[in-house]
From TrEMBL:
<protein>
    <submittedName>
        <fullName>ABC transporter ATP-binding protein</fullName>
    </submittedName>
</protein>
<dbReference type="GO" id="GO:0016887">
    <property type="term" value="F:ATP hydrolysis activity"/>
</dbReference>
<dbReference type="InterPro" id="IPR027417">
    <property type="entry name" value="P-loop_NTPase"/>
</dbReference>
<dbReference type="GO" id="GO:0005524">
    <property type="term" value="F:ATP binding"/>
</dbReference>
<feature type="domain" description="ABC transporter">
    <location>
        <begin position="11"/>
        <end position="236"/>
    </location>
</feature>
<dbReference type="InterPro" id="IPR003439">
    <property type="entry name" value="ABC_transporter-like_ATP-bd"/>
</dbReference>
<dbReference type="InterPro" id="IPR003593">
    <property type="entry name" value="AAA+_ATPase"/>
</dbReference>
<dbReference type="Pfam" id="PF00005">
    <property type="entry name" value="ABC_tran"/>
</dbReference>
<keyword id="KW-0547">Nucleotide-binding</keyword>
<keyword id="KW-0067">ATP-binding</keyword>
């Protein structure tokens, strides 16, 4: 890696294991996050999202395997880490200090810092430099984390559930600010969240974890097209499904009508589904990333 990479850093995890004592948090995780992408790091509680970000933020080292940012090991690597910004849910701020002091501290540590962006975001989120961090409400403290994360303009910027506690208008202001600044200053963003519905349209790449294992690391578009819904008369849908060779994830009955969610195997094609249902009265619809995620991580079918 030479100098500052202004267009975003790629991330590679190769056979990564992370254990906390007897707990295996990450189990043989291999994935790549493209440089310059807005990537969603998705998973249920305890799936390992924060653990992945702690490795990338150089708070921890893997028990086994390798973590590379821009081709280099980030651990205790100042040259890499000045280009990496991780904002954790806890904020990582100097709570006893004023907002202005926190901003000056961040600016001094970051060669890519934009003071202009920081000041405009303070206005967007109605934060005043003279306010003490410890007196901020939870939502305002989250907003401060977002100001620090976005104004860092770090080539790898990671935001771990940062928008928790923020009201809907503030969250939408955050999404808009991120997209606007990203358009002018592309970089790699990794956003970890449960609010997949809100992030869906922003994401270019998605990493889905479940119990420390990788379920998917793929383009968001590929993930979105993995599933479809079929809505029609129950008998017709059942007849179609009997011949279609599709995996059924879920079914909802609404009187004589049924809605089934089907998925294709990675690499298979669902684009001909419209043509295949022609004349059956069945309608084909898309499913949201949120619904697909719920289905992918559903454990209700598991039996010990
Ligand atoms: N410091 C720790 N000591 C022991 N176990 C830990 C520690 N941190 C995390 N774990 C365990 O590692 C696993 C992954 O946790 P992690 O915090 O990475 O998940 P997460 O996806 O970020 O969860 P959440 O969405 O609830 O924040 C969980 O089983 C968790 O209990």
């Amino acid at each position: 890696m030479s100098g500052l990479d202004q267009s975003g850093l790629p991330v590679t995890l190769d056979a990564v294991h992370l254990r906390y004592g007897a707990t295996t948090a990450l189990d043989d995780l291999s994935l790549q996050i493209p440089a310059g992408s807005i990537t969603g790091l998705l998973g249920r509680n305890g799936s390992g999202k924060t653990s992945v970000l702690s490795l990338l933020g150089s708070y921890r080292r893997p028990t086994a395997g390798s973590v590379l940012i821009g081709g280099a090991d980030p651990f205790e690597n100042e040259r890499v880490m000045e280009q990496v910004c991780l904002v954790r849910e806890s904020g990582d701020v100097l709570a006893e200090e004023r907002i202005g002091v926190n901003l000056r501290y961040a600016a001094s540590a970051r060669p890519t810092w934009s003071e202009e962006l920081a000041q405009s975001l303070l206005e967007v989120f109605e934060l005043r430099p003279k306010d003490q961090v410890k007196s901020l409400s939870r939502g305002k403290r989250s907003a401060l984390g977002i100001v620090l994360g976005l104004a860092s303009r770090a080539p790898l910027t990671m935001l771990d559930e940062v928008h928790l506690g923020m009201d809907a208008p503030s969250r939408y202001a955050f999404y808009e600010a991120l997209l606007t600044d990203y358009a002018e200053h592309p970089r790699t963003f990794i956003l970890s969240s449960h609010l997949i519905g809100e992030l869906d349209s922003m994401l270019e790449h998605a990493v889905v974890l479940d119990r420390g294992r990788l379920l998917a690391s793929t383009s968001a578009e590929e993930l979105r097209t993995r599933g479809m819904t079929l809505v029609g008369r129950a008998t017709e849908v059942a007849t179609f499904l009997a011949e279609a060779g599709l995996q059924v994830l879920g079914e909802r009955r609404l009187g004589p009508t049924t809605e089934v969610t089907v998925v294709r195997e990675p690499g298979a094609d669902l684009s001909d589904l419209e043509a295949r249902v022609a004349g059956t009265g069945i309608e084909v619809g898309s499913i949201s990333l949120q619904d697909l995620f719920v289905h992918m991580t559903d454990r209700s079918q598991e039996r010990p």
